[in-house]
Amino acid sequence: MRQKLNIYSMxxxxxxxxxxxxxxxxxFYLVSQLKPKIVVELGTHTGNSFFAFCQAAAENNLxxxxxxxxxxxxxxxxxxxxxxMYKNVLHYQQENYPTAVLLRMTFDEGLSHFExxxxxxxxxxxxxxxxxxxxxxxxxxxxLSDNAVVLFHDTQVRMQDFGIWKYWAEINKQYPxxxxxxxxxxxxxxxGKKAPVEIIEFVKNGNEYSDIFEKQGKEVYKEYRRRRLxxxxxxxxxxxxxxxxxxxx
Length: 249
Prior knowledge:
The chain is an alpha/beta fold. Helices cover 43% and strands 18% of the residues.
């Protein structure tokens, strides 16, 4: 029997890049079922995934504390980030989710901010080499709670020296797990031994639900494209509006 899925809210924040937007419905579902006390994201970029967790917590009337850890400097895959990116994420967080926390630091530096056994959702989306992903998981493993679920993004990407797919192939044999193939791949690893039964049942029977999450993910991506096109049009029209205003004077 299929679970009732809480996945149909449309995300409030949809910014470039597009890579995570198709997994936002699963973020909504995971938060609604797990009811996390602490969510930690390693690698936030423009905040699509992070603010999806924040939105889901708010819409489910949870007191979840959400932490984003990132230097906002970029890496060898993304190239350097403009400072304006961090300022935009910070402004959005302060205006919409004032209890959320942005920790501008390396993942290793972030470890000291959390006690062992406290993190319910860990999203790993930093440097995508095999060595980096393995180190991130192993470093943060002691911090995970008995309910913990770990998400690995880009498990389907095999370009350059991306190694998430390789590490995922190893680690998913050690815990209950499920992998979404759409949206560049998302690995769902149930590390906590006392995770809710709904989460355990989901990873056991994920194929029964994957079509629903993929379909809703495509709808979110359509909305992302609509908003980006609207923003692009606004930028293109801005000089014409300035000229028109000057001509009226």
